[in-house]
User: Fold this.
Amino acid sequence: MIKINNVVKRYGEKVALDHLSLEIKEGTIFGLLGPNGAGKTTLISILNGLTKYNEGEVTVFDLPLVENLTAIRKRCALIPQTLAFYENLTVIENLNFFGGIQNIPSATLKKNIAYAVETNRLGSMLKQKASTLSGGQKRRLNIAIGLLNDPDILFFDEPTVGIDPESRNEILETIISFKNENKTVVYTSHYMPEIEKICDEVAIINAGKIIKQGTLESMLSNENADQLVIEIYENTMEKLQVTCAKMAELSIIDESSLMLYGKDNKIVSEALAVLENEKINIKTIRYGTTTLESLFIGLTSKGRQDV
Amino acid sequence: MFKAMLIKEFLLVLRDKHALAALFVMPAVFILIMSLALKDVFNEDKALIEYAVVDRDNSLESYALLSKFRSNKMMTEHNVSENFGKPKEEGVQFIVVIPKGFKSQFSENEANSTALQIEVASDIGQSHLMLFKTQILSSVMQVRLDMLNLSHEMQDHRDGKVSKKIAFDEKSMMKIHYAALDEDEKPTSTQQSVPSWIVFGLFFVIIPMSTIFISERKQNTLMRLSTMNVSLPVLFGGKIIPYMLINQLQVWVMIAVGMFVVPLFGAAPLTIGGDISALVAISVALSISAIGLSILIATVVDSVEQATTIGGIINILLGAIGGVMVPKFVMPEFMRDFANVSPMSWGLEGFLDVFLRRGTLSDVMYEVVGLLLFGLVSLSLAAIIFNYKIRRVA
Assistant:
């Protein structure tokens, strides 16, 4: 669906994207992770035709981006981090404006507005001025505007910034629902749990390069890691503390997982014996990090640069 | 606690370049402009009156009068040909014609046939006209007294009679006519002031227009519109047309106030002396000029606060330079030339043509073209900056 091949973007002397290559498959929710200045926004801007790139090739829907920008844009939507609508217009006025500006036939627009309103649960506030909506409602309106052209690809740039957990969960559920409609979602966020919750595939970008890409599962199970994750049936913290005190390499992650530092047979055998003595039942043992966050920090802590 | 508050407030204001500009630079520039514009008004040695004389009498009396004019420090004479144009075209405020037979005024009472004929530029205020009339009357009186003295001296030497019919009233000595107006028709203060405030009012569109534009930029609404394939002409056109309509509404509301509300308070009503087509053309052109400048400011600055401050400052300075606050005829010559850098000056001239000089479409065409060009250049610059700063479409 989206193919990025050896793309280079320079801002004067600074290289924002350094021979970056990436492929995003149709119908996936693709997470784009990276520290500030890593090149995420530049990449999203390029994919939306807002920024020129210096070298490389980008194709979307198998069409070269630059030559087919207008046609490609008709099938995409960008949901920016900022609330990009008019606060002094009502919800329905905003939807009518952003639909009308895209020259969508009126019958289709009516249908698309109904879909956007329903998907984002805005039905009861159509005549309310956007300025009077709560933070979560504003975020939902921001997303609804992106659905007006019934896009095949949705680019979300940190869409849950500054809202309460309940509203965040509602938005994440909405985004997950796009998978059922075979829409492709490119999602950037700083909230790792969000990425873990909704994304099928993840790419970690740092200093303009993709440093890790794959499914969430493959990213979290790294056979070369120096530690093992032992998932257990949930237990009390007190009991886990007593257990871990018996072996220095063992530490608590949470009530249902432990970390074992080291992977040679002697250490693993010893840990299994300790757990058996304490009657702690093991679910699975796997190599790797426990969370995307620890993987992200590990990968991006070296060579950070602002671009 | 209070000390901390004071320190914080000083730090914030001292680091706000635009607030400092509004507080210090703008008043300083304003003082400079207004002082230069008005520097001759309070200077007794400076000529405030610019006039030209056509002497068709060529008599001893007319030469005497010319001599009095030339010795008057308040008046500067310019040369005009016998077939002179309107005062504005000749670059003067008044043209005095000394008619043939003027000398008879000094011996017989034939006021109307021999009175001085004075063409007055239509935008000259009453106070300025009064000043000029006083100078003329004074000069004529002095000539008459000189002549009288001469007559008395001569009486001692011969037995002739001195005429007793010397007229000293203003009407017998001069006949005032405002350029492009009917006989005895005078421009009112309403006619002279309303055009200034129309021009000033139209340019205030800078503030709402640029603040909305900046908000759209900051909120990424414009970026979102770009991703929706909204082209630059649609984007700019979608702003120009509504604000142009608002500007036209402003013009007619202000004219309506001048025509119907001002008379309720005892002042003279506004009348539109010129063509409606000329009025529409100049107001549309002025509107495009103001809108072009607004969009240019909106693309250059980076925040609503900057847009409000810079927009306000530019509006006031253009007004001060362009003759909105101080009539151009009281400005010194270099300031009058400098006034031409302000589009408000062109708009004001156009409106004065319509309201005071019975201007037609062809009379305002020069100003209309200038304003349209200014608007188009501003919009083009705004488009270039906008593309560079915001869109940068692949």
Notes: The longest strand of chain A covers residues 14-24. Confidence is low (pLDDT under 50) at residues 302-307 of chain A. Residues 106-119 of chain A form the longest helix (14 residues).
